[in-house]
Amino acid sequence: MESDSNDPAIFSKLLLGPGPSNVPERILKAMSNNCISHLDPDFFEILDQISENLKQLFKTNNKTTFAISGTGSAGMEAAFANIIEKDDKTLVFSSGLFGNRMADVASRYGGKVIEIKKQWGKNFRIEEMKETIDSHKDLKIVAIVHAETSTGSLQPIKELGEYIKSRDIIFIVDCVTSFTGINLEVDNWSIDICYSGTQKCLNVPPGLSPITFSEKALNKIKKRKEKVTSWYLDINLLRNYHEESRIYHHTAPVNMLFGFNEGLKICLEEGLQARFSRHQKVSKYFDDIVKSTDFSFFVDKEYESLPMLKSLVLPESIRDEALAITFRMISAVRDNQSLVLISPNRKLTRMVSAYLSNWGIVPDDSAGVPLQLTPPGRFLRLALNLLKGPATATRVFSLLKHPIAHSVENYRVDHLNFVPF
Ligand SMILES: Cc1ncc(COP(=O)(O)O)c(C=O)c1O
């Protein structure tokens, strides 16, 4: 039977969202190697390489540094499952969807969660964070997202770590979107548990969560009165496999780790500094274009925003038209058609052209912009942005009678993410 596993209509898509990102050939090739045993000494060498490379990229000397099987959310669960004991006071600074998720996960593992919410798109000020920490006695854990994907905001981790370091508090940082895209210094910033994902700035497919634990975190875990409630994510058991003893825990996703190892090598070959500069350069180029349009930035300009992920607000002037275009995009996704976006609105086509040109695609925007199709999630965000008043994903897709209406989260988003890298 003919296989459709090389169907270019599926596999040539350009990924423009906040992840997954397109995967380099080298990584795909590494993943297609013959599978070997997760207990093969050659495989242990690869695990050692991964740990060493991760240490360089996390900028840490933490011995316990490896990749959890599972996506970024598995890293989040691993952080809270291991560190939280019943009723541990856990302060979460939340500035978007993933901050909210942290608070939810922490409460599921028995934490007494204090969630401090910031208006989406706004950054926490270090002074207000210090005051909040001081106003809560017996805090055991402070958690925050470094780069909030849902808004494009960057939070002041260095200053927060500096403040927490001398206290008996464990500092957890989500760096799913920031890792290898913008500076992150686990040891210098006194971060105790830091986790990421593979499908963002690393350009590896989703499926692993690199994580690192400080001695301070491991000591708290050692003193637990009760077992970690998750067997799969129990760091004590995982260390027995990833560190010297090499005791079987679960079957490691061998080929995924081949690809991950290649992704880390590519990153180190380019060099972190060069990588950060590349993002900054593209970001500046992108921002300059945005400034010449009626679009505005979702993250308040006076605060730092992410160079590798942009959130923009659509101008009023093109909302109606953009809404119509979005619905056509969604229909095309549903019908699996290719799509040519033809818009009389020069500003809109110029914006999309500029965006595509970051990938070397130079559309003929005199006629329209050929837009490659990407998964519906992106269009969902766009559609939500276009509806006036409170909008939920379910509502948008119900309007369209789209089957995804039954499976999307019922949360509200007010902006549109563009990712120029
Ligand atoms: C900041 C942040 N944290 C956590 C996650 C969850 O990661 P995953 O979807 O890989 O489970 C994401 C995913 O986009 C994220 O952006």
Helix and strand topology:
Layout: H1 8-11, H2 25-31, H3 41-58, E1 64-69, H4 72-83, E2 89-94, H5 97-108, E3 112-117, H6 126-134, E4 139-145, E5 147-148, E6 153-154, H7 157-164, E7 170-174, E8 193-195, E9 208-213, H8 215-222, H9 235-242, H10 254-270, H11 272-291, E10 296-297, E11 310-313, H12 319-335, E12 339-341, H13 346-357, E13 369-371, H14 376-386, H15 393-399, E14 416-418
Parallel strand pairs: 2-3, 2-4, 4-7, 7-8
Antiparallel strand pairs: 1-9, 5-6, 8-9, 10-11, 11-14, 12-13
Helix pairs in contact: 2-10, 3-10, 12-14
The structure holds pyridoxal-5'-phosphate (PLP).
3D structure, described in words:
It is a single chain. With 421 residues, this protein is α/β, with parallel strands linked by helices. It has 2 domains: 25-269, Aspartate Aminotransferase, domain 2 (3-Layer(aba) Sandwich); 272-419, no CATH class. The protein has helices at residues 8-11, 25-31, 41-58, 72-83, 97-108, 126-134, 157-164, 215-222, 235-242, 254-270, 272-291, 319-335, 346-357, 376-386, 393-399; strands at 64-69, 89-94, 112-117, 139-145, 147-148, 153-154, 170-174, 193-195, 208-213, 296-297, 310-313, 339-341, 369-371, 416-418. Helix 2 (25-31) runs antiparallel to helix 10, helix 3 (41-58) packs across helix 10 (254-270) and helix 12 (319-335) packs antiparallel against helix 14. It is globular and about 55 Å long. The two termini are 38 Å apart. The model is unreliable at 329-344, 355-380 and 386-421 (pLDDT under 50). Bound molecules: pyridoxal-5'-phosphate.
